Amino acid sequence: SAVISQKPSRDICQRGTSLTIQCQVDSQVTMMFWYRQQPGQSLTLIATANQGSEATYESGFVIDKFPISRPNLTFSTLTVSNMSPEDSSIYLCSVEDPPGAGTQYFGPGTRLLVL
Amino acid sequence: QKEVEQDPGPLSVPEGAIVSLNCTYSNSAFQYFMWYRQYSRKGPELLMYTYSSGNKEDGRFTAQVDKSSKYISLFIRDSQPSDSATYLCAMSRGGYNKLIFGAGTRLAVHP
Predict the structure, then answer these.
(1) Is the Cα torsion angle B82, B57, B76, B8 positive or negative in sign?
(2) CB contact (8 A) between residue B95 and residue A31
(3) pLDDT tens track for B31-49
């Protein structure tokens, strides 16, 4: 299965600032996914990132707030913009491996606290 | 009504017990069913994966899918304190369709 790393592992930020989270995969993958896990909650999909095209956002998430880049088949970034305390969550990236199999593997997550 | 329902627990059992974790769902198009284990401050780890109906066994873990009842289960035999974690069910239609997660069940296995 794919091995996924994320940076940073955690951060404390001030409201109104932005944070960019990086996701690196050890193999080439078509689709990468970004999830949010609010405290004590399950995972909610933010967007799906396909290399070479615009990310597809789920209802309730917009590109201005969560811009995503996908420059190649092993890397993606998620930016949390103009942060507020409500953005305090764990942000996780995942990949589907093997492609089309329906199984997703997750990175370790980025724990974000917004003050 | 949520697409996937899962009792959040917490569930507390003694070491050695058989644990049963369950999810129900409403979308009959789901074909891929997964169980993830998430330790505190870690990302979810894929534990079991089942396509369509049936059973799958891996060591102390057994996953069951009953599509007619829209019900999936994860059984843990001879539970260990190291099994203490949150267990999340997830399902999808497959083929790059998104995963829909249950709320997760917190399990504590005490010595």
Answers:
(1) positive
(2) no
(3) 999 999 999 989 999 999 9
